[in-house]
Amino acid sequence: ISVILDRTQLLDDFSFTFSGCAGLTGNIPTGLFENNTQATTFSRTFEFCSGLTGSIPTNIFTNNINVTEFFGVFSGCSGLTGNIPQGLFSTNTKADTLGKVFENCSSLTGNITTELFANNKEVTSFWKTFSGCSGLTGSIPTGFFDNNTLSQDFSFVFYNCSSLTGTIPSNLFTKNTESLSFGRSFEGCT
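Now predict its structure.
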């Protein structure tokens, strides 16, 4: 796969590239998109790739600084394991859509770090971002959404994250004055 993408440096749209490829197995190659510097969207790229295993590579999107959309990029990847890399989207400062990014990634484990979306100040939607991530543990970090002041939708953001523990930070949404929806944000967080 990575050899094919190396020769397509000018591609800007990776929407649905491997979507529904449940038969793909193994790890996502670390440098899969490193040469695709013109990429603007990774919407649903690995959606429903339930056979993928291992951790999400920390630097998979590092060189893709023009990306605006990550909607559902790993949605339904129930075989992915390990922690969500804290700097996964740190260079993607133009990203405005992070809805459903990890939806139903039930085998991802560990804590969510404060830095995960710290550089994504243009995001307008966190709809279902962690919905169904039943393996995530620990508390939701204080100040987690402080830099995401443009977001208008937090509905279902932690829906069915049944292994999260601790208290909900009292200031979690203090700076999100543009938000219009928080519906079912914590439903199923047992």
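The chain is about 5% helix and 0% strand.
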